[in-house]
TrEMBL record:
SUPFAM superfamilies: Chelatase (SSF53800). Belongs to the ferrochelatase family. It comes from the Bacteria. Fe-coproporphyrin III binds at residues 12, 29, 45-46, 53, 124. The gene is hemH. This is Coproporphyrin III ferrochelatase.
Length: 307
């Protein structure tokens, strides 16, 4: 007999229209409204990348691809898709409530972020569980998939393809910058959070499996909280690496993200490129996983381990 199981795909969320930006930013700030200057700064960044972020559409396509791949993989289960966003509707709680209304008693949850931190994936899972407990829905959480073979294969191929665009004589003057979203340092250290180590592991595996000779680890997109965040920041790192080694080519792989959005299109493609232009180096940023079968397959393989 085929049983129906919920597939709760969780993601950051993005404004759907300009007038959503203020509430979205307020939600990110745990209910504290940004100042007019902060709000304008965010609006300007969205404007710079074309008005709004492509994230909403991509999240939908990634979720649909995962649903199809899972339903092709399991013969005895029919997965039904629900979306749960962190900072905008449909919020995580709304997705879980909808599962209950549809009679779902068991679900698998996945966050569209490959590394685990108690303050990222852990907080999505906590919200989903708190809501699911109200209805007696049993959840199986995917915690991370950065180590899955297909995820590594995806990035290894992208790095090698990018290297192929760079003359071989310059490979020794090329560096790979492996990065993820920064988080406040105090919070991470106090709780012995696995997040920094998971990024470190990713960089180590990519260094061993791809043809790149030089690899550096960095953090990006840090917020404005007045407290220290995990570093080095990718822009500072670019300057330091250039100063110390004189690299000619910088390849950025923001492996903590899974598609193009504000933090990649602005923080990498604009801010890091500005630094590369300033020092006279070439900027490369391979395509993000999006709905690539290797990426979707990596999540399916992780789910197969757990469910
Ligand atoms: O394209 C888009 O519209 C949305 C892109 C976007 C993604 C994303 C992912 C992560 N964030 C994480 C942590 C924080 C912390 C703060 C914070 C602030 C922002 C702001 C915007 C924003 N984040 Fe985000 N994040 C994205 C967008 N993020 C916009 C607010 C303006 C700014 O600071 O730039 C700081 C909160 C505070 O001020 O107190 C912390 C983490 C991820 C990766 C994991 C995940 O996707 O959940 C961690 C995509």
């Amino acid at each position: 007999m085929v049983k129906t199981v919920g597939l709760l795909v969780m993601a950051y969320g993005t404004p759907y229209k300009e007038s959503d930006i203020e509430d979205y930013y307020t939600d990110i700030r745990h209910g504290k409204r940004p100042t007019d200057a902060e709000l304008q700064d965010l609006k300007d960044r969205y404007e710079f990348i074309g008005g709004l972020s492509p994230l909403a559409g991509t999240t939908d396509r990634q979720a649909e691809s995962l649903l199809d791949a899972l339903n092709d993989t399991y013969n005895d289960v029919e997965f039904k898709l629900y979306l749960g966003l962190k900072h905008i509707t449909p919020y995580i709680e709304e997705g879980v409530k909808q599962m209950h209304e549809d009679g779902i008693e068991e679900a698998v949850t996945v966050v569209l972020a490959p590394h685990f931190s108690n303050f990222s994936v852990g907080s999505y899972n906590k919200r989903a569980k708190e809501e699911a407990d109200k209805y007696g829905i049993t959840l199986t959480h995917v915690e991370h998939y950065y180590h899955q073979e297909k995820f590594i294969q995806y990035w290894t191929q992208k790095i090698n393809d990018t290297l192929n665009d760079i003359p071989e004589s310059e490979h020794d003057e090329t560096v790979l910058v492996v990065s993820a979203h920064s988080l406040p340092k105090g919070m991470i250290e106090k709780s012995n959070d696995p997040y920094p180590n998971e990024l470190h592991e990713t960089a180590k595996i990519l260094s061993a499996q791809s043809n790149i000779k030089h690899v550096a680890e960095g953090w990006q997109s840090e917020g404005n909280t007045g407290t220290p965040w995990l570093g080095p920041d990718v822009q500072d790192l670019t300057r330091e690496l250039f100063k110390e080694y004189g690299y000619k080519n910088f390849i950025y792989t923001p492996v903590g993200f899974v598609c193009e959005h504000l933090e990649v299109l602005y923080d990498n493609d604009y801010e890091c490129k500005v630094v590369c232009d300033e020092i006279g180096a070439n900027y490369y940023r391979p395509a993000m996983p999006d709905t690539d079968p290797l990426f979707i397959g990596a999540i399916v393989d992780e789910i197969k381990k757990l469910f």
